[in-house]
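Bit of a strange request maybe. I'm writing a small parser for structure token strings and I need a real example to test against, not something I typed by hand. Could someone generate the tokens for this chain?
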Amino acid sequence: MNLSYLFFLSSGLFLGWSLGANDAANIFGTAVGSKMVRFKTIASIAAIFVVLGAVFGGAGASETLGTLGAVNALAGAFMVALSAALAVYFSLRVGITVSTSQAIVGAIIGWNFYANKQTDYDTLAQIFATWTTCPLISGIIAIILYFALKKLIKCCGLHLLRLDQITRIGLILSAAIGAYALGANNIANVVGVFVPSSPFKPLNLGGIYTLSSVQVLFLLGALAISVGIMTYSKKVIMKLGNSLMHMSPMLALIVVLSQALVLLLFSSVSLHNWLEGNNLPTLPLVPVSSTQAVIGAIVGIGLAKGGRNIDWKMIGKIVVGWVAAPLMAMLICFVSLFFLANVFNQTVYLP
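Reply from user aminoacidic:
Good idea to test on real output. This should exercise your parser:
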């Protein structure tokens, strides 16, 4: 293994750690915030399923970022990933959960500007569109689930203790689905820019299954995400868990399930091909923001309940972070590439 490649890949692993620390709040923050599930229990489950999602479902969304900007030099890929990671990390330090998807897009655009490469504006417009549709779809799903579960509970007449038990199990299952979807959809943000230069060879798992070279790369990125979940996500989780709106266990379940379904819709190659094969409308296979999905779900439920209990000031602060993160990543990347090329004599792009 080339040691220089491992050094450059470290920025992608740092970004993976940042994503785990930041986006775990979106997977199961409401479950922990509602005090239905212990952090260590659900974090361990999420860490396992995020690896499974990245390795076995991460191929679809990774192609879109390559179309946005084909980072063709290893040192350039290093700085793109590091810039996005720093933007996310600085936001975490001030207590704002931001979008890793938006940060990596901003960093890629910064590389395009520095390298004088043409940004694929059709792809960029497609990505921008998902930043609007993602929370909207999540909110709609949350509203449907809210009224459906409310009616189901009323019809079944479940005892309070029985309902509590079912909700707890539902939160754990939804978190597992959400973690799988996060790995499948967001692994492209973590190591997608390193795919063209990946030196890994296929890995045979005891004759049972063989990981491709790209899947080995995804595995490393997913392990970094898992470490972020286990080591630094609790602070963000406790902040998001109940800060936007008070979460009952049932509402927490709806939020977790809504964002999980949205991430699956934007990352499932099988679903995309099935819809396309039946001449049905499809959603683009792009990395979307789990932060936006969970905020959309919370706002959807809040609106379904009359909109009185939503902390609009907190939501406004988070939206500002959504705008600031890609701009910060773009600026950091552009300036850092200059120093990397002119001070450290690294090739950050190929003509």
